[in-house]
C-alpha cells in the first residue's frame, strides 16, 4: 500500500492561530491531522481510490467514510476499531455534482481532500467532540470565540456534551433540522444525526451564523462535520440500527487550510496559489485580472483530471470516462478563454506533482501518462473547439439575457464538436442564456433510435436480440478491471435459457449483467475472466465472462441463495488466473514486435489467443521460422522482460495512434478512441519498444511476465505461421519437467546428463546392428538350419526339374523374395516356392524360376496357382520372380503342392 501522508512539519504545529497564518502549508495540515489522530490511537489508513471498489451506485468517492461503509454496517471486519484518513474525493457527475459551480464560488471543488476520524463501535459522541475540540483549539490554536456548533434539533445529549467538553454556552450552539444536521451517504447506507463546527471569518465579510437569516453569507463557514452514525437506511425506506453506534467525521482540507492560513477563499491557500500561478504563467493571464475565474477552473480541474487519470480512468464518451472528459474540456475551454491556442494544461502537471506527489505517490508514478493523456485530449478538442465556438456564437448572436438556446444546436455541438452539454451551458452562463435541455435530450434519444435501427439491420439481430436490447436499455457495462480485480456491482439483468428472468435460484445456470464489473469479457483474443460473486446470502461461481455489444455477461452457477435484480454484489476475479492471462497478453505483444524485427516488416498479426495457461500468435510469414530465428525472437522478448519497465496505457484517437507507430490489426474496426499499450523502453522517440492498440489487460511492469518461452511453431494456412508460447510459472514448469526427463534418462543410461544424447545415438546404432543380425539369423533359421546341406534336404526332382518348396514362419513378408533368390542361387537350376505363414494367419508366397527354365515356366503364371491355394487371387511379377498372397496361410502345403503339380 502506498503511504499517503508525509510527516514533515508536524512537530511544529502547536502554535497560536496568529502564528499559524501563512506558516502552515496544506501538506503540513494534512499530516498534522493524521498524526494527531494516530497519536490518539487511530489507525492511519491510506486514501481509498476515487473509483469506489465497494459501492456499485457511487460514481466517485465523495467522502472519507465511503471506504468504511461496510465496516459501519458490520459486513466487513478490519483489524482496528478506530481510523483516520486524508481521503481524495471527487464531486462531479452523479449525485453530488459541483462541476458547474467551480470557478464561481470560493469553496466549490470537483476534487478535494477530506480529513476524517472514524470509530467503528468504539467511541461515540463524547470522545468525538473532545478529540475535535482539542485539535482545533489546543493543537491548532484556533480562537474558540470564532467557533460555533450546530446539533440535530432533538439531540439533547450532543447539546449537553458540547457545553461540558467545550465549555461554550447555549448561545454558541444551534439546533437545526434534518436538512442540515442529519447526514446520509446516499439513498441507502449508514447515516445518523450530525453536529457541525463553524468558523467565523470575520466581520468584514457579509453573513450570519448557522440558522440565522444571513446564514447563506460567506462569513460563517462550516469546517467540520461530526456524524453520529447510528442507523442504516434501506432501499425500502426503512431504517435499522447499526450493530454499534459509530463516528464518521469529515473536514475539507482546503477549507481548514484557508482558516489556518488566514485567508477567506479556498483558492488563496498555498497549494492553489502554486497551481494558479503556474496556470497564469503558462497562459499569460493576470492572476488578479479578469481571467481569475478561468485560472481557478483550470487549477481545480487539473487536480481532478490528474488524479482520475492516475487511477486509470481515461476520457471517453461513457460513464466515468465521460465525466472526466467533461472536466477536461471545461478546463480546456477556459484555457482558450485566456488566449491559449495550443495545448497548455498538460504543461501544468509537473507543478501538481510537485505540490501533491509526496502525499499521493500515484501522481509521481503516473506523471508521464497523465501528461500525455491530457496533451492528447487537448489536441483533439482544440481541433474542433474553434469551429464549435464559432457556431455557438453565430447561433446565439440574436439571443439576449434570459433567452434559451435550442436543444438541437446544443446537441450538434455535442455530437459533432465534442462539446459536453455543461460546457455549452458554462459558455452561455455569463450572458444569462440557458439551454433547452429537454430539446437536447430529445435529439440524443433520436440519435440512439437511429443507431438501434442500424443494429436490427445487421442480420445478427435474431440470436442477439436480448443483448441488443440490454445494450440499448442499460448502456455498456463499465469495466473496472484495468485497475481492480474486486469491486461491487448492482444486478441489472438476469438471463436463463435465453430469456430474461427476475431471479436465479440455487443450482441455476445463467447470465448475470451488472452495471460495473472487474471481470474482463472475452474479446480481442483474450479469454474472459472467471471467479466468484457474493452478496447478502447469495453466492455464485462465474465460469466465464462474455461481452456482447458492450454488455458484460457473467456466466454463473448459483451455489447458494437467490440472485435477484437490483441486488448489490461483490465481484471477485480469480486473481491467479487473471495474473497469468495478463502475463500471456503482454508477452504476446513482445513476441509480435520481436518477430517483426527478426523476420521483417511483413509480419502482420493474423490472430491470437491469450489464455491463462498459454498463448498463441498467428502472423504473416511464408516459410517456417528457423530455430535460430526463434531463439533470436525469444531472446529479444526476454530482454524487454528483464528491463522491468512500466507498461503504460494511453487513450488516443485512432489516427493519432496509428501515426505514432502503434500496431493495429489490419481490417479491424476501432472506435474513435483506442487504448494504446506501450511496453519496453523506446529505442527511438516512440512511446515504447512495443506499441499496440489493445483493449486487453496487461502486467504493470514487464518483469511481471517472468519469462517467455516459445514451445511450438507451425503452419496454419497459406503464408500464415503460428507460434505458441508459455510465460512465467508455466514456462518454468515446462523447463523443469524437461530437465527431470533428461535426468531420469541419464539415470537409466547410468550416464551424466551431458552424455545422454551420445549415449542414445550409440544405442540406436547398436539396435540397428542387432536388428540386421537378427534378420539374417531368422532367414537362416527359416530355411531349416545354417548350412547349405540342411536346406538341400527339401530339394526334390519333379519332371526332371529341381523343385524346392518351403514353408517359413517368423520373418517379415518383405524378406520372402530374398529367401527365394538365395535358394535359386544355391540350386543353380530349378523352381523355388517359399510360403510365409504370417503371424496374422495370412499367407505370403514368392516363386522363383532360374533363367534357364523361364521359357518353360513363368513365375508370373505359377504364382496364380499358389495364391489360389491360399484362398486369394492374382499375384504377379516377372517370369523369373513373382509374389502374391492369400488370406489362409495354413494352406501353405497346398500352395507348394499346386506348383509341384504344375511342373
Ligand atoms: N460523511 C460526512 C460528510 O461527508 C462526514 O465525513 O460530511
Automatic annotation (TrEMBL):
Record GO biological process: alanyl-tRNA aminoacylation; negative regulation of DNA-templated transcription
Record CDD domains: AlaRS_core
UniProt GO molecular function: alanine-tRNA ligase activity; aminoacyl-tRNA deacylase activity; ATP binding; tRNA binding; zinc ion binding
Keyword terms, alphabetized: Aminoacyl-tRNA synthetase, ATP-binding, Coiled coil, Cytoplasm, Ligase, Metal-binding, Nucleotide-binding, Protein biosynthesis, RNA-binding, tRNA-binding, Zinc
Binding site for Zn(2+): 585, 589, 694, 698
Superkingdom: Bacteria
Keyword Repeat among record annotations: no
EC number: 6.1.1.7
Function: Catalyzes the attachment of alanine to tRNA(Ala) in a two-step reaction: alanine is first activated by ATP to form Ala-AMP and then transferred to the acceptor end of tRNA(Ala). Also edits incorrectly charged Ser-tRNA(Ala) and Gly-tRNA(Ala) via its editing domain.
Similarity field: Belongs to the class-II aminoacyl-tRNA synthetase family.
HAMAP family: Ala_tRNA_synth_B (MF_00036_B)
Name of this protein: Alanine--tRNA ligase
Species for this entry: Devosia limi DSM 17137
High-level lineage: Bacteria, Pseudomonadati, Pseudomonadota, Alphaproteobacteria, Hyphomicrobiales
Gene name of the record: alaS
